[in-house]
Every structure is written in structure tokens, then in C-alpha cells.
Amino acid sequence: MLNMALKNLLNLLNFKGCHLNIRVNGQFHQYVHINRPIYQLTAVLTARPGNCLMFSTSASIQNKPFPVLQNVDINASVMPKFSASQTQMEDAVTNYQKLLSLAVQGGGEKAIKRQRMQRKLLAEERLSLLLDDESDFLELSPLAGMGMDYGNVPRAGLITGIGLVNGVYCMLLINDATVKGGTVYPITLKKQLRAQEIAEQNHLPCVYVIDSGGGYLPLQAEIFPDKNHGGRVFYNEAILSAKGIPQIAVVCGSCTAGGAYIPVMANEAIIINKIGRIFLGGPPLVKAATGEVITADDLGGAVLHSTVSGCTDHYADTEEEAFAICKDGVASFNISSNPTPEEWDAPQWDSQELIGLAPTNIDDYNVYRILARVIDGSRFHEFKALYGTSVVTGFCRIEGYLVGVVANKGEITGDGALKGAHFITLCSDRSIPLVFLQNSFHHSDSKEPLSGEQLGETVKNHGKMLSALTLASVPKLTVVVGGSYGMNNYLMAGRSMSPNFLFVWPSAKIGAMELQSMVTHMSEAGPSSAQSHEKEVKDKLSREMSAVFCSSRLWDDGIIVPQDTRQVLGRCLRIVSQTSRGRDVKVMSQGGQTERGTSRVIRM
């Protein structure tokens, strides 16, 4: 009844597009007529006997920036491809959710029971005690560690993510002792280093919740000696502190061997009596080396480290007390956040339709349909719309934040790269975050090959876009919505270009080149026996290019279902907008002069 009255009202007033604010019997409603919003229309409706609606209206022109995208409906001509894509995506989502449900179970019932017997909380329960709002927690790479050569390591034995602790966005790193006793595998270490990298990039305080038995020694060659192995965790802690990024550690379990340095290198450390212990070698090692029998608490317990060694700063009798102290510690970090937008327009097209808009080939891809379901009000100000059309660039808002969008439609041509470089530089100069939507399917093989001169020009322009991307001093958020192949992966802020965050849709594919092209190339280049095993090669490559395989190896920061894209991007934009205050300190030498006669500034 109400919708019909509104429709008649719009026809009567002959408005091409408007926003309606409606009061029905004293209750306020908002109705958005899908088109370019030019007018702000207020209608007061009163219900009368006999199902009649009486209304009075007033209208005023409201200029909103950026035009609404056009021709992005799911019409009859699009529906067959939409349905096929939806079926494919739903299968991919089902597979992803099945693996995710397995990963979040941790080490299983037996390990959980053992944790309970030790009177320790589970990792998820510790997370709940820390967070202001569990629904606002952005977990990173939950599939990491699944299907590894050395077996499944659910969540890599470590929960990492970003959430509000006393109103401050923090990077949380929480060991899950139900997974292999908290043992550090190579994938665990990789996940921990990535969390620290994100914290440094986005200036996020770190909270370490430690309950770990140390490194998995049979794989020590993959976790100890190299630059990005175990020692890098401590290096990163020092760098974070020097940059004024606070770190706090809660020791609520074993903190053994190299892991003992994590709490002592944090700015503050909290230890829990009877369950928290810090030592380089436990009681068995002491007995083997010296013959002395000593308890774990006497060797490295809460009383010792809080009263004698001074390794910890706070003593707690319970985990609940420890996390309360931790939250108070975060409140003392002196963090200031930029104001966040208080209101914004929802997209004028349904975000749920994104599940059928994932591209299966280049002919299916309409980036404007995706944008219309992600950005505020579906309003987009395109830049260089008629030039370099392999790349779409333009300005819009996502949950109130102004962003620059770079989206590729297949292979990036030389003109497209030149346009991309120009736009990236523009955004960097204006301090506007960049959002990259990757889809790098190749064009048809019937396309005429480029001449040597054209190839040279393309490579040169690719280099310009890579340089602009590398040097851009603004946050970069990447979402792989389709294929991500070869050089296009790099040009569109793939992992090697260090975006602040990188997410993939469940049906995404990532590889050096498209699957069939790679199989053909390997068959032609390899021995004749390789041709007879083409199916096995194709199956192996297909598995290794899948989103699940990539995410389990931390080539991204997680898989997101298409309809959550806007929400995840909005949350990331809130996170990157947070800044930290620090104070400049001059480091003095023993003689009272600054080192080398000049000031060395450390952010503390």
C-alpha cells in the first residue's frame, strides 16, 4: 500500500530521481528511488479510514557529488550468465565455508578437553575478553595452514585480526594451544610476521596473547636460520617500538625458548599465576643439563618474573584479571583517531547480487555492475573514461570514505597502464586511499599480436604504473574478484606490491598465467612424456591456483564472500584512518652529547 502510494507520488511529481523521507502515522521511514538523486523530498502521510493515505510534500534540490552509475541492472540479457556465475560462486562459497568450519574447531575435542583440564581459556574466549565488539573483529587468514605438506595446522595455530580494544583498533595475535600444543610451524611464523607487517603499515598497536611450546624442531630449517624466519619477530618488535607503535603481551601459558623474548621486548607484559611461564628451557632441560629438579613456576612463573627478574610488569591471578589489565594498558597508549564518517548512502543496487557477478571470462565482466553494489549511493566519478579502457579509474565513497578505484578489465594495455599511473599519482598527491579490483582474464587468442614497437611501448608504460604504485604513499586495498595473472597481478597491487590488505573472492584464480595457457606452455616446453600427463598437470595447477590454496599459504589476507566486500572495505578504511601520537626523544651518548653530534629521533 505504502510503496504504491509512493510510486504514484513520484509519477505525479515527475521526478527522475529522489530521496524520500516519509513520516507515516508519526513513524519515520526512508525510501530511495533508484536513479540519480537530485531532489530531497519530504512526505508526511496520514492513514485514514477506508485505507486512504493523505500526504503533504515539500521538495528541495540537493546536489550530491558524483553521478549514479547507469545500465547496471540484472536484466534479461544478463540473466543467463548471471545464473551460471551464481551457481559457480555458490559452489566455491560452500567449499570455503566447509574448510572454514573445520579450521575454527582448532585442535579438536581432545585438545580442547586438555586445555580445560589445565584451567586455561580457549583462544576464542580470550579474544572475547579483549574485544569491545566481537562483531567488529576482522579476522585475517583463517584458512592459513590448511592442507600443508606437513598436514593441517588449523588457523596456523594462531588467531590474528584487528578489533577495537577500549576504543582503539589493535592487531591481536593469539596462540591457539589446542593446535599442536601451540607449536610454531613455518606457516605459523609466516602468519605472525604478516600480522606485524600489517601493524607497522597501518600503525596499529599489537596485543600478543602467548601460549606456545616453541618451534617445531623437525622443521627447524624452515623456521630458524633465514631472514624472514623466527628472529624476524623480535626484529619487528624493536622496529614497531621505535616507530611509536605500542605493544603489550599477555603470558597465559608456556613461553619457551625464542618465544620468551616476545613479552620482554613488548612495551608491557602481563603474566598469569600458575599458568603463565617464561623460560628458555623448561624443567626437563634443566634436569638433563644439571641434574636439578625444579618446578615450572619456580623456574619461570609469575611470582619469579614479577618480583625478582622484572621480565613482566603486571601480575594477575586469573585470565579475566589479566585481560582487564591489558585493556587498561591499551587505554594508556595515548592513541588519537581521525573522525569517522557518521552517515552515508547505501548502494542503490542490492549487494546480495554480487554473488552472481563474479567473472568467469572477459566477456562476462562488467566492473560497473560490481561497483554499483559496493560504493555509496552507487555514485562514481570516472576518470579518463574514454582512454585506456582496459583499466577503469574514478572516485567514489565507501561507507563515507573518499577512495580512488582502479579496476582492470583483462590484460592491461599500454594506454591503460599510462592511465593507471596518472590516476594513482593523483590519489597519492591528494592523500586518497586506493581500492584495486583485480580481474586479469586474457583476451581471445584471435586478437592480433602486438608489433615490437607496440610491445616496447606497453612494457615501458607498465613500468610507469609499477613505479607510481610502489611510490604511492596512501593506503592500498586489493580485492581479487576474478583472475589475477602474470604482470597484471603486480600492476594491480598484488602481494609483492605490499598493499595494506589483500582479499580474494572464493572463485578467484591466481597464477603466472591462465590455466590452459600454462598447461599448453608446459606441454610444448617439456619432454614428450609431459603431454601424456597433461590431465595430472592440469589438475595440480588448477588446485594450486585456487583461492583456497592461495589463502592457506598466506598469499592473501583472507577469502571474503562477494556480498561482504563493501563491509570489509569499509572496516579496512576505518582501520587505516587511525593514527597514533608519539613524542620525539633525542638519544644522548654517555658524554652528554647527541650521537655523532646530531639528534637521532626515535618515536616512542
Determine the N-to-C terminus distance. 62 Å
> How many runs of DSSP E, i.e. beta strands?
24
For the largest beta-sheet, the strand count, sense and barrel status come to:
8 strands, mixed
- The coarse overall form would be globular
Mean pLDDT: 85
Poorly predicted residue ranges:
12-21, 23-61, 580-604
Give structural notes:
By secondary structure, the protein is α/β, with parallel strands linked by helices. It folds into three domains: 2-61, no CATH class; 118-335, 2-enoyl-CoA Hydratase, Chain A, domain 1; 351-518 and 545-577, 2-enoyl-CoA Hydratase, Chain A, domain 1 (Alpha-Beta Complex). It contains 20 helices and 24 strands. Strands 5, 6, 7, 8, 9, 10, 11 and 12 form an eight-stranded mixed sheet that branches. Strand 8, helix 6 (231-242) and strand 9 (247-256) form a beta-alpha-beta unit. Helix 5 runs parallel beside helix 6, helix 13 (414-429) runs parallel beside helix 14 and helix 16 packs across helix 18. The chain is globular. The N and C termini lie far apart (62 Å). Residues 12-21, 23-61 and 580-604 have low confidence and may be disordered.
Present the secondary structure layout.
Layout (H helix, E strand, L loop, with lengths): L1 H12 L4 E7 L2 E6 L6 E10 L3 E10 L17 H25 L5 H9 L5 H8 L7 E3 L17 E8 L2 E8 L10 H17 L3 E7 L18 H12 L4 E10 L4 H5 L2 E5 L4 E3 L3 H8 L5 H5 L1 H8 L4 E3 L2 H13 L3 E3 L29 H6 L8 E3 L7 E8 L2 E8 L5 H16 L4 E5 L13 H20 L4 E5 L2 E3 H6 L9 E4 L4 E3 L3 H11 L2 H5 L1 H11 L2 H6 L12 H12 L1 E3 L3 E3 L14 E3 L1
Helix pairs in contact: 5-6, 13-14, 16-18
